[in-house]
Amino acid sequence: MNIMITGTVRQRLALALSTALLLSLPLLSTASHAESAKAPIRLATTTSTEQSGLLGWLLPQFTKETGYPVQVMAAGTGQSLKMGENGDADLVMTHAPSAEKAFVEAGFGIEPVHLMYNDFVIVGPSQDPAGLGKLHDAAKALQAIKDKKQTFISRGDESGTHIKEKTLWQAADVKPEFAGYKSIGQGMGPTLTMASELGAYTLTDRGTWLAYQSKLDLAVLLEGDKRLFNPYQVILVNPKRYPDLNTEGARTLKNWLVSEHGQTLIGDFKVAGQALFVADANGK
What we know:
Structural class: alpha/beta
Number of strands: 12
Largest sheet: 8 strands, mixed
Order of helices and strands: HEHHEHEHEHEHEHEHEEHHEEE
């Protein structure tokens, strides 16, 4: 028996086939995207790199160029290194050399590399009742704050800034237990805000200071002491301890940051016309 297919039937079959193909395209596209999507990289880092705006400048460009999304976990250096120790991060970006050295020597970190540096400064009320503007020694500055019965706001969070602050108190041979010493357990931004509100002194990294200074009633009162040098490193978390880490992605990010391109982007990052960090992959 011969079946006659009329022109109308042919048109209806062609339309049905075209519709089926169109409906299948989103499914094919989703499957293709799922196959090509890269696993996110977990970066544990200091609040200074986030609150200064540096990561908001760098990471979108990194993701655009490599396809790797980056999950930022910003905390103090101590907490960031602890996340690495626990396998909760793929790499760390921190600024406490002694703590980083211990992290690597204990087998938690591998492939540490210099990334950049800036410096710490002591800020306080422009009236400067402790007289820091006449000094050049950071330890003597802290001694003056205590002696003049002024208020000092400490991050108190085992961050790189807090670790630096503690070394300065030790250098001054002063126990930070006086009435005006307030340890708040917060990041750099909230610490600066509280110091401004209370007319107090604090230690800050220059990057976060430059990002926040327009919002604060504070001034830089001491800078330039060689003990205030503030280097940053990037360290991969050891995959031998945690095999499920995204080490491939973490190494891609580390290499991108220390490449000529990444270093140029770090140097190009400015707030109010001022560079916040000096690219230093060669560790000069």
